[in-house]
Amino acid sequence: MSTATGFDWRVLTPVRDLVLLGEVSFWAGTVVGIAAFVLGIVAVSRRAATGAGVAAIVLSVLGPFVFGGLAVVAVIAGISTGLDTVTGV
User: Fold this and answer.
1) How far from chain centre, in Å, is Cα 66?
2) pLDDT surpasses 90 at 22
3) pTM to 2 decimal places
4) What is the SS3 assignment for 9?
5) What angle do CA 18, 22, 15 make, to 5 degrees?
6) Angle at CA 1, nearest 5°, toward 86 and 82?
7) At 59, is the secondary structure helix, strand, or coil?
């Protein structure tokens, strides 16, 4: 059962738990990153825990880039593994 593009979505059935885990991790990381950003701004503006506030801001800004890089690595690893099963090499 393939779509018009020729991709059969049933190949993802064995890893659907990992896909769900990835999606939950994405949304949890988004919430934590936004909270860190806001709390870091509040800490810096009140001049309370300035070092920790700056660290929270920096980490919350760098977080999406780290996640994106790891997602690219995971996709490339998945594609390379999938190519072995499709081509039979």
Assistant:
1) 8
2) no
3) 0.68
4) helix
5) 20
6) 20
7) helix
